[in-house]
Design brief:
Number of strands: 16
Largest sheet: 7 strands, mixed
Shape: globular
Distance between the termini: 5 Å
CATH class of the largest domain: Alpha Beta
Order of helices and strands: EHEEEEEHEHEHEEHEEEEHEEHH
Length: 330
């Protein structure tokens, strides 16, 4: 299977914990051609998606990546295209999904570009409000202050498009800094923010659960550093092993069918206590940490799921338009 990874530059990849790296390595170890490019290398000609991409050998030993020369290639020639560019989810990111929409249906694009656009990682979770902490989405400072005044304790305020813990603040009604915080995060009421009830269970950790085709297959706790409230590895949270609770399983059962329907094959959700706080669909992480804690090889499981979905896709198109791809082997 020819696979193209649309991703960050190779020099930014930390192979010790990067999930894209192990997915690429798994494909390489199966003997499949692996290619990569950055979003800026994508373009379209007469409605067809193309890339200026490079073949790469991906190994377990330094230097880890051995890229070849740049080549111009039609994405229709790929079996699978992975969108693995890390956030922020800005307009450049959105436009990249538009280009990937032009990839023909005979090529599997993961996660589905239209679903990445529609499933903002903080807003998508609110389709299941009963599973989330009480939440207000607003850019009005007065409305946010009123929400804080009615909250039973502290609140969390964060930008709708943040990532890696950026801009996540804990405050409360009566905090003399609350007004300034709201002014900064809303950029003077020009940008939306989320205001949520604070979950004290964060002290025990923020649980990351990896779902593949809507099924929970791996999980870990990310425990904030002393003096910090953010359970993000990016800002130093420590990972620990944990078990899934009945509440966790109920959350996964509730959202799983929707994820499968939307073509969101590889997803990471965040759970604090009994509440889901985010559904990560752009470039979920955690494979390597969960592998070490649980003795798994999640990259194999994910890749097997990709093969199964590609075969179903290829079989469908072979049956409907006789394009001959049923003869290709994964």
């Amino acid at each position: 299977m020819k696979q193209l990874f649309v991703m960050d530059p190779l020099e930014r990849i930390n192979v010790v914990g990067d999930s894209t790296y192990v997915l690429m390595r798994e494909a390489h170890e199966r003997g499949w051609p692996v290619w990569f490019c950055e979003p800026r290398d994508l373009y379209a000609v007469q409605g067809a998606a193309w890339a200026r991409a490079r073949a790469v050998a991906v190994t377990a030993d330094a230097p880890f990546f051995a890229p070849g020369p740049h080549e111009e290639m039609a994405l229709a020639d790929m079996d699978v295209v992975w969108m693995r560019k890390d956030p922020p989810f800005d307009m450049d990111y959105v436009f990249t999904t538009y280009l990937l929409d032009l990839v023909p249906k005979t090529t599997l694009v993961l996660n589905r570009p239209s679903s990445i656009r529609n499933a903002n990682e903080k807003m998508f979770a609110l389709e299941w409000p009963e599973l989330c902490p009480p939440t207000l989405v607003t850019r009005e400072i007065t409305r946010a202050r009123a929400f804080a005044a009615k909250a039973p304790g502290k609140i969390v305020i964060k930008p709708w498009d943040g990532n890696g813990g950026r801009g996540v603040l804990v405050t409360e009604h009566g905090d003399p800094n609350l007004g300034s915080m709201l002014e900064v995060l809303t950029v003077g009421e020009r940008a939306y923010i989320l205001v949520q009830h604070y979950l004290p269970e964060i002290a025990a950790g923020d649980k990351r659960i990896i779902l593949v085709e809507g099924e929970a297959l791996g999980w870990m706790l990310r425990v904030p550093q002393p003096g910090d409230h953010r359970g993000n590895m990016h800002v130093g949270a420590q990972v620990k092993g944990c078990d899934l609770t009945e509440g966790d399983r109920a959350i996964c059962a509730a959202i799983g069918p929707r994820l499968r329907e939307m073509g969101l094959l590889f997803v990471g959700i965040d759970v604090i206590g009994s509440s889901m706080t985010e559904i990560n669909v752009t470039s979920p992480t955690g494979i390597q940490e969960i592998n070490r804690l649980m003795g798994l090889r999640l990259e194999r499981t994910v890749t097997d799921a990709v093969v199964a979905r590609w075969r179903a896709l290829a079989g469908f198109h072979a049956a409907t338009d006789g394009d001959g791809r049923e003869g290709r082997r994964a």
